[in-house]
Specification:
single chain; about 425 residues; alpha/beta; Rossmann fold; 2 domains; 6-stranded mixed beta sheet; about 30% helix; elongated; binds S-adenosylmethionine; N-methyltransferase activity; methyltransferase
């Protein structure tokens, strides 16, 4: 496909099939022209001066083309609102979703975009209009959805020290109600915002992170100000747009020239914060691995098998066999009374198959030693951290295997994993 494909083209959105001849698009994010509200000043414009049926049929034409140029893993995000006509509310988002279902688009999610700022008045029988719909469709069931990239991991802090097993180590899934302010006058220039109502940059970024990686192709058949496509460019995605008004296209190109460099840097900095997310995940997994040992101890005790002297915990790089599990952790168990070994092994199988241990996302590899010599030869030479059977978020001692005698009665968990957190710091 020619290189010039990746720009905003001055063409009718109903004709993008002439432009994009095979499926290359990963995501389409767009807000279609309003129905009979705004005159964009072009004969081919969709919406103005049409009947509602003709309007919907034109949208079907556009989104049929979009469907055909979308990869099987691709998605479509449409920002769309209801409107008033002849004293009634017209449920455009739902009419639209029903119409394009026939093309093959599968409705996956309905998100409410809370706009936070809104006009201070409303028509009779209505509340103030403070939200729009974001409809998400997929081309197939096998669509791309990188939920880990948009998780809210800062919000967990308060809880994860004590309950690392309860929260996803990459953070909380965002709610289906999004809050993004409408852009205010700024770098886009005076009058610009009023004219276009561009979509908020952060909202576009969220959708792009969910659905694409660098180099993927983003489409907006009703580009307008080019808010979607400039964000795509800044996030190192390729983009294709169609728009009737050449002035808008020119404005977009100027904007990209003026701000592209700065915005790209901003994006790169943001990418670095992803590293924090990785560090966070690693910490949560360490907390889980250690707490698992402590919980295991307690459960054996509850089963009247108080025969375990020490547990050595070791994280591995192995991938778990079951996809819903997150890590494989080795637990080396020193059993006090060797004659109880079989009983302990049997009890272990029962305990780990049930909550709470089954909820830790851990695939445990148990190994047992019947005496201290067998146990110690399997331990690393270097520094070990000792944790108690009451708390595994801060170590109590640092020691080597030769100094095991220094352990007090409740210091029963050993590991090379170092965690030293103070619960109060995370209140
Ligand atoms: C609601 S605006 C899009 C605003 C855009 N999402 C933004 O952030 O600025 C709809 C745009 O569709 C354009 N448009 C209307 N009919 C069109 C058609 N048949 N082909 C291509 N663009 C069209 C209008 O010129 C207008 O810029």
């Amino acid at each position: 496909m020619p290189k010039e494909l990746y720009k905003i083209h001055q063409i009718d959105a109903r004709e993008i099939n002439k432009l994009i001849k095979k499926p290359v698009v990963s995501v389409t994010i767009t807000s279609p022209p309003y129905f009979d509200l705004k005159d964009y000043g072009y004969a081919e414009q969709i919406g103005f001066g049409q009947s509602y049926d003709a309007y919907l049929n034109d949208l079907v034409k556009v989104f049929t083309n979009v469907f055909n140029c979308t990869l099987d893993t691709g998605t479509l995000w449409v920002i769309i609102d209801m409107f008033r006509k002849e004293g009634e509310t017209v449920p455009l988002p739902f009419d639209f979703a029903n119409k394009i279902k026939a093309i093959g688009w599968k409705l996956q999610e309905v998100i409410i975009w809370g706009k936070d700022k809104t006009v201070p008045w409303a028509h009779k029988g209505q509340m103030r209009n403070s939200f729009e719909y974001v409809l998400m469709f997929s081309k197939s069931e096998n669509y791309t959805f990188h939920i880990d990239t948009v998780r809210d991991y800062e919000a967990l802090k308060k809880w994860w020290v004590k309950y690392p097993e309860r929260y996803n180590p990459r953070g909380k899934t965002p709610e289906a109600i999004w809050h993004f302010d409408i852009p205010v006058q700024g770098s886009w220039g005076k009058g610009y915002i009023r004219h276009f109502c561009p979509l908020p940059e952060e909202m576009i970024a969220q959708i792009l992170k969910l659905t694409t990686v660098e180099g993927d192709v983003v489409l907006d058949p009703f580009s307008g100000s080019g808010a979607v496509l400039s964000k795509a460019a800044n996030m190192k995605r390729r983009y294709i747009g169609s728009e009737l008004n050449p002035e808008y296209i020119q404005m977009f190109e100027n904007y990209l020239l003026q701000t592209g460099e700065e915005k790209r840097l901003e994006y790169e900095q943001g990418e670095r914060t992803l590293l924090h997310q990785n560090v966070f995940e690693e910490l949560i997994l360490k907390l889980r691995a250690l707490k698992y040992a402590r919980t295991f101890f307690q459960k054996l005790k509850d089963a009247k098998l108080d025969e375990i002297a020490l547990v050595f915990v070791e994280m591995t790089d192995q991938a778990p066999q079951k996809t819903h599990l997150l890590i494989v952790v080795k637990y080396l168990i020193l059993v006090r009374d060797q004659s109880k070994l079989q009983e302990i092994e049997l009890a272990t199988q029962k305990i780990i198959g049930k909550a709470p241990l089954s909820k830790f996302g851990i695939e445990p590899l148990f190994q047992y030693a019947g005496n201290f010599n067998d146990f110690s030869v399997m331990l690393p030479e270097g520094q070990l951290y000792a944790y108690t059977n009451k708390a595994t978020h801060c170590y109590k001692k640092i020691l080597s295997i030769r100094e095991i005698g220094a352990l007090s009665k409740n210091e029963v968990i050993l590991s090379e994993i170092m965690v030293d957190l103070n619960e109060q710091d995370y209140e």
